[in-house]
Write a structure and sequence with these properties.
- With 154 residues, this protein is α+β, with helices and mostly antiparallel strands.
- The chain folds into two domains: 1-31; 39-149, Immunoglobulin-like, CATH 2.60.40.
- 18% of the residues lie in helices and 31% in strands.
- The chain contains one helix and eight strands.
- It has one helix at 3-29, and strands at 39-42, 46-47, 53-58, 67-72, 85-88, 103-107, 126-134, 139-149.
- The protein is globular and about 40 Å long.
- It starts with a helix and ends in a 5-residue tail after the last strand.
């Protein structure tokens, strides 16, 4: 074999190895990370007293204790004032299930906050804020989404 043939084979071998290694590294570093922003919204802006309240959420991180909470208008999560209503993203309280990143929560007569001595359901007429919160804590992922409870609505 000539020196030129050896160089071509050597260069070809190097290129093949380079392509394989580069492809492997690219495959290892192409893990997809979600950069989608979490969101929370209400199905309606005005609800009648005692009407089921539907809350949509999306792009939650999917931790077991991510939760959706209803506060009186202007109350900030973690401020020491109880939530009016709350459910984990799987719709339970107590509970929680990992892996839920989107869905619809229904607040209804079974949604009274057991940690609050006041009766929270049905919500009194007034304005409310809804938040998507992280990790059984008060880290706000999304919100507030606003809604009103008012008599005389259909």
């Amino acid at each position: 074999m000539s020196t030129r043939t050896n160089k071509v084979q050597s260069t070809s071998g190097f290129l093949v190895c380079f392509i394989i290694v580069t492809s492997f590294i690219a495959g290892c570093t192409s893990v997809q990370h979600s950069h989608l922003v979490p969101s929370v919204s209400t199905e309606k802006h005005v609800y009648a007293p005692g009407e089921d309240i539907l809350i949509n959420f999306s792009n939650a991180p999917g931790y077991q204790y991510d939760w959706v909470a209803v506060y009186a208008d202007g109350v900030k999560p973690g401020s020491g004032i109880f939530t009016r209503l709350f459910l984990f993203t799987d719709g339970t309280n107590p509970g929680g299930t990992s892996g839920i990143t989107k869905g619809t929560i229904v607040f209804d007569s079974a949604s009274d906050n057991p940690e609050n001595s006041e009766v929270d359901w049905p919500l009194a007429e007034g304005d409310y804020d809804v938040y998507l919160l992280c990790c059984d804590d008060y880290g706000v992922l999304a919100g507030p989404a606003e809604f009103t409870v008012r008599s005389g609505t259909d």
